[in-house]
## 1
Amino acid sequence: MKRFGALGLLLGGGIASFAAVACDGVFDVSRYHVVDDAVINGADAGGEGGAAPSCTVNADCVAEYSVCRKNKCVSLQSEDCARIVGDYKNDNAIVVGSLFPTAGDDQSTGLPMQNAIEVAIEDFRKAGNVVPVPGSSVRRPLVMVGCNDNSDDATAVRAARHLVDDVQVPAIIGACFSGITMKVATEVTIPGGTLLISPSATSVALTNLADNGLVWRTAPSDVIQADAHAAFFLQIEADWRKTIGANPINVAIAHKGDAYGSGLAQSLAAKLVMNSYPAIDNVNSTHLKVLDYGDPDDTTKPPTYAEAISQIITLKPHVIYLFGTTETITGMLTGIEAQWPSSAGYKPIYLAADGTLVSELAAAVGTKDELRRRIFGTIPGTNSANFKTFRILYNSFVKDGSSPDMGGTANSYDALYNVVFAAVAIGDKPLTGANLKDGFAKIVPPGPTLNVGSNQINTAFQMLLAGQSFDFVGASGPLDYDLATGEAPSDMLIWCLPSDGTKALPGITTEQYYDAAGKTMSGTLDLARKDCGM
């Protein structure tokens, strides 16, 4: 069910609550229509049940949170979509949907992404709270309809149908996980002509999806994450050589049998160099195992954890890659550790991706410091000045205990900026997904660099209104989209677990990161370990 691990392993629960104080530093909730996340079981948009009342403008719809769509009053809310932010009664409003697990097991993953959209909306409020239309006095405020997909395919599809069919949003920011993103895209947003931009779905399978140019992502493809792992492995292998000398290194790649796990495993196997040869070379045939342990979300075929673990124990790998989600811990890591033979004389290093960074990992490691020191992972991200500014903004606005360091949070913030700038770039064309996708061509090179942030918004508007382009650099890093695929490269950070045995935020080493542009791994393993308190 889970796909994208959070940097916040066990963050405080609850719905986002914002301090209603001075506008210049903290979110002023009096400027927004915000409702608690709850299941809405009331009457239709008319207020008393029966047929939806007819309308011409939003003001004709008297029920709270109702708007006029195709001459009928509809509710912005549904059983899955309860959070409404912005001046929704304004007929010129740009209404954007969000689709994340904002409640349930993955709340610590999804809630910060939804919060980040609201932080971005606040930026636009500071800049005037309006989005211009070229050649017109019309100004458009921003509205978000926030939906909880509960990390469930069926729920996500239902929520997306509400956003696309009822609310008729031109764009949805989400989903969080690759599988859900694929499901929503193929069943709802592509047929509905709605632009879908995910801040955290990284599956390679999304790259060549037949999407009519409607699926974008501010998160990088796992091809780049595989590049980062291949580069990081060389440092891990060199470290092992200090212990085992010229003996061969054994490697196991155990992965979930879904698009995410399989795509990442295949990409790494094709790029990995071990024992001085490509991993797939015949010389490594007895030193490498790639194991598909199945997909626990596939009810037709149970996972084969025991068989995969048995093969790993037989190989006794020095490095074990775990590419999946929660099951990489509950189904694989705990079993490997329990069955690892003392006769091996060593214990393996575990290397994981973003999907393994979930609360179950912290629970499994607990206070086992020796195990903690053997676990590293990668996650898209940057420690740029733009990100640090975003972190300050987020922590000033959001008071629910969630963290801006959560993977995908800065990417969600950037996604709202991208959608708004695309809306201005298309001029007076209708706000449709097909038109919005064309607007992305105005926010990539060539052109002067323009950083994310409220103080740059009006400059961006002026340039777009004049038909000019710029190179947008977000809180998540440069977003130099490939306009054919809708994705951009991104740096990758190395994560590790905290040294105090708590379930708090893991460490992000500033000494070790993969430079996607230069295709190199910066820093050294020793510096990374020091940065991680090892």
## 2
Amino acid sequence: MLKRVLTAALAAAAGGVLAGLAVGALEVGALAVFGGGWSDWAGLAWSVAVYGALGLLGGAGLGLAASLVLGRRLPTHANWWWVLSGALIFSGAGFVVLRFRILRDLYQERAPLLANVLVHAGLLAAFGLVLGLAWLLARRWARPAPGADDGGLSRRTFLKAALVGGAAAVPAAAAASQWLQPRAVAATGDTIVHRTGLGRALSRRPNIILIVADTVRADHLGAYGYAAAKTPVLDGFAAESLRFAHMQSQAPWTRPSFATLFTSLYPSSHGTIYKTSVLPARALTLAEVLRAEGYITGGFGNNIHLSPLFNLSKGFSEYEYLAPNYLFGATEAASQLAAYQVARRVNEGLFRQRDVHNFYQPAEVVTGKGLEWVKRHAQDRFFLMLHYMDAHDPYFEHPHNGYAIARVSLPNPRPELAPELKRLYDGEITHLDQHLGELFTGLQQQGLYDDTLIVFTADHGEEFYEHGGWWHGTTLYQEQLHVPLLIRRPGAPDAGRVDDDLARTLDLAPTILAAAGRRAPAAFPGLALLSQTPR
């Protein structure tokens, strides 16, 4: 009996390993093809280790569970176990991965009821088909050779298959990971001639700092009339700036919004609208234009959507993605895998104490990075983009004590939680405000504040059940699209002025170029909201 149990457990575990490796290889290959490429070997190793380990544990568990249920009726042939276990693990893991990728990447987590039903029905049908084929294979392969021990041939066949399959899975995943990597090509639509040195024309132009606060809606700032706001720094900055009362984002979530901000293209034109979308190499960016004019271009992205994986760093001569401290030893690329996302959600559900660094780098880190970068380039003409994530969920209590509310663990809060969520959200904006004060003070100490064009805006807003929904990326209500826009030109000539005309994220790149004395290229359909300084 012990021999039967061990045979079942070991064979099922081996089948599970092969199935896990196959699922991991297929997902990495799919991300390489549809997600812009995969060149992260550490991430590939993480994928192999995690999916293989999950398959091992799942297979061993199946074998032992079957032993307890079937007892002496337990089949002795190893082939039964590694084929059926592999099919179960492959089908189950494949179901989870495909469901995650379809509903998250294709439907942006907004699949209508009918689509949801069809997706699940299709995946369940595929699950049944795989199991049926596996059963037929197991019956065929479980017949011992004449004169052979009951399980001997099965074990030899199984070991050969395990070695061959395991040896083939890793290089197959590696080959898939290198397929269709993104390759930088020259931008089209405008001739870009790169200039070097701080010439006479460039010396008359301002330095530029673009501050993008993720998930900050306009009507939660004091400058936009929010009575409960505690944002003295931004209120004071608004008093020195031109404030746009009706600034509209082109998208309710980060990646398409930033793509529009950088390219002055509608989302329907740049096409960066899905979780797997990559900014096309043909798209001309604001950073590329300014770099061609002689500006040193630097950026600090603070959200996975601004990772170089998605090409939004295009045109920056110096760019750093401020990656979070990934859980479970994952890498940036591995964090895109379904296994990581599922494990992260389980972790969020089990542990209430949270560390902000596991989600993003807080405002103090961004401000510190920005001031250090500006100090290094004080003698250059520069364009710097700083991305703050503090207002994005999870909403942390300040000072940090581990208490936070996260979308991943509470996707559909009860309506009565709206006041608590708003309280935490406003606290995050206050925290951001304090560290923007440190940024502005640091610029003043370096003698750069008064002579720098400083733009403050947000990529999108946030919803607190005003229309029956939460978070962002799900609707086109003003809670998600109305964002702040404050522009302080050198010398503050527009101090305290309010522009009541419509402004759009689409217009930001042409506006910044106009303030820098550069006419927007023909590839930018947006409008300059400021008059162009003569060149």
## 3
Amino acid sequence: TMGYGLNSFTDFDEPLDILTHLMVGSEGTLGFISKVVFETLPVEPHTATALLVFARLEDATDSLESLIDAGAKTLELMDPAAIAAARAAVGVGGGAGNSRDPLGQVTAPTQTALLVESRASDQDELVDRAEALRRTLSGLRLASPVAFATSSTERDRLWMARNGLYTAVAGARPRGSTALLEDIAVPVARLSQTCAGLADLFAQHGFADSVIFGHAKDGNIHFMLTLDLDQAEQLNRLEDFTENMVDLVLAEGGTLKAEHGTGRVMAPFVRHQFGDELYEVQCQIKRLFDPDGVLAPGVLISDDQRGHMAHIKTMPRVDRAFDDCVECGYCEPSCPALNLTLSPRGRIAALRTIATLPPRNKRAAERLFAYDGVDTCAADSLCVIACPVGIDTGKLMKTQRSLRHSPAVQAAGALVARHWGGAVELLRAALVAASAIPGPVLAAITKTARTVLPKDWIPLAGNDLPGPGTRRRGGVVGDQAGPVSGAYFPSCVNSLFAPAPGGPGVGAALDQLCRAAGIALLVPKPIGSLCCGTVWESKGLTAGANAMARMTFDALWQASGGGALPVVCDAASCSHGLQALADRLDETRAERASRLRVVDSVSFVLNEVVPRLRIDRVLGGIAVHPTCSTVQLGAKDDLIALAGLVAKTVFVPPTWGCCAFAGDRGMLHPELTKAATRPEAEAVWAAEAEPGRFDAYVSANRTCELGISRATGRIYRHVLEVLAANSHAL
């Protein structure tokens, strides 16, 4: 019965049920599962979460059975070493009352924590269940008072420490070492003895820094070892430890794998766990499904008693920028290139592999990586938000681009930066000329040019290429007689590209909104020659980025009155770029730049302008495309809030993500934007099945509007344009 707790095959209604149950958990040894349909359980929406602190690990594990009997739905264990690692990851030293420390109740180095959670279908039921837990807690040996959190913010703080434990420990490992995570389960009643035995084995085999954490409610715990797998002595220690650990877990009536797959690491011990008779049954079933032994060899079933020591994956020291990467994959869902080339994890894994190759193979691999890794990275840096150890793969790929450029190319980039006003006029003239050429002809011309010139410099233009926007000029926008409420930095993107058809553009909309609110914004006089510098940084032109940063900062410092006024920018990506000016400045300027308050126009209007306006909510529905920069700026909720002021319903596609237009990258590599936006476009089309669902489509950045408009076939415009059309002075 393969461990499914069935008395006989007669428990199955149909032969197909037998095959289904055999396939579940077979890890590819019996076949490949191409599709899965789950029977789901309803979510209980009301939740209360608390952190229970115990003086010792055994006090926590001894309490599990009573907590389970009291109705605890979740019991997550963190031993003292795990708590220390979690605190180090968030940069705190601990201590009660530390608001940055989700483990602030833990005050002694030997204390252990259990994260307990109760869930219910309604609030009254939750109160009853939490009260049942409280009665049980009164009889436990707790080291600190317990308070249940019900708000999502408070609960998220508590879960933050637990969810990031693997990467917190792995990220703190010595450079070049590997973090090995193991997964075992024992009867809950035997968990205390098992944890004590593991602690003894850690000490015996020299793994003093190991941590224990996991899903204690099910007797399922994880522990992590960090060691340098390039050293024979450490490999020998690992082998000895593994054999002792197997004996310990099986002696406690446990299983060598629980939620994680058996894989090749535990395959040599499967016979030991199940016994010769049941192991032979498994081998017979394997031969029936796979007589030639081609499916997942060495997984689950293996005659190699040292198979777990073969093909060990090491973590070579390559670059301090990403050596901390544990390849956890948390970054992958946010990557625009995930379904096209490489994810952030894939890029780092590729760089590690390339570093170990001989010179001839390395050159060939680098040529492949140039497109898969460097060219098709949108460099939006959403990955750093998801990364528990703070690796910015987007920034890393910008560095790779900079390494391509010769000193002459870098000097040319700096020259363009110093004469950006003239360069913008040349680009505007090119757009005027391009607008006179039929779209198919323009696409053919640029496509031909890209066959002989570098694709990373020649855009693929077509029908959706807009004409030039409005020239930027210094002066005052808004109410000329009103109080100056900020320095305004109109983006050169909006000067290069005309607004979406039928709209005035974000600059005109912001001017109209400020007039209605009775306030003014001061535009720096040399604005026509200034830029946030993102275009240079994105292309790896560091000299140009630095030159532009100096000029832009000097102008903004003066316009803002030495930082007294906020700096308002009308393109989210440029707002984000301006916030990073200090990174490209000398020490004196950087110190002053840190005092500049850069605010995206979306947030500025919501907080400073909207309170002075009367707004008509006349639209039925509005679709919103957040951008990677609005997330980086913390302005995503502000964007959605502005849309909600003018529409009865606001739709944010659940599959939204970075459009990967990334300035000009969507024109240089349109396949990247196509792959990145497909899920969001499908969600928008599905939502439109309801007739008249959306009266407008909005975003917060002109190039992103181009990218998502291309993907959906709908006209996206800046949210301020829609707001201005439905706003009036009080």
